[in-house]
Amino acid sequence: MNAAAVHLEKPRITPLGSCAILFEAPGEFDLEHQRRIWALADAAAQWDTVVEAVPGMTNLILLLSEPPCELDLFRTLLQDAWESGAEKHVEPTVLKIPIVYGGEGGPHLHDVAEGTGLSVDEVVRIHTEPDYTVYAVGSHAGYCYLGGLDARLFMPRRKVPLLSIPAGSLSVAGLQTGVSASAGPSGWHTIGRAEISFFDPERRPPALLKPGDIIRFMAERIVA
User: What mean pLDDT do residues 160-165 have?
Assistant: First the structure.
């Protein structure tokens, strides 16, 4: 799709149940779009009856205090705010995370190397080179959706998902990579493990990172 066609695309705005609205942005999956989503969330949080504006990956959910009397009013507000092109730039927290690549905590490291045609050392080197921007926090408490994965490490999701991976598992799939904030199922390729707590209900705020923050992965060691 060319740039002109993308520009003409309109957001998709639909109700979610009776007291929520989903805004889905058109265009590419990139940092510019996420900055526009963050700005849209800040603007929408000030509107009447909006309890919370939750930014996601190229989307935004508005949680309302009551069912909207005029959904078209929200459609107009969201459309106008999006088309303004406003972006939110934040002063990021930079978090460095040591990773043990491979071994018991990274059982799919060799699968990723084979699937990408790279050596294990090359996979680790390429994976640790970028600064990863937190695009959104969600899926499970404290989990960070990251942008910045090198295209050489793109892998399809696993054909057979795992029933559970432990908290701290570092995985890749498609154009995404991330560390699991808690134990749970996964269809991604787990290539390493970190000792970190992304979410603590006793902490304020409980989530360690916010959209716009930066993660740098560091190879503590590689286990063949």
Answer: 90
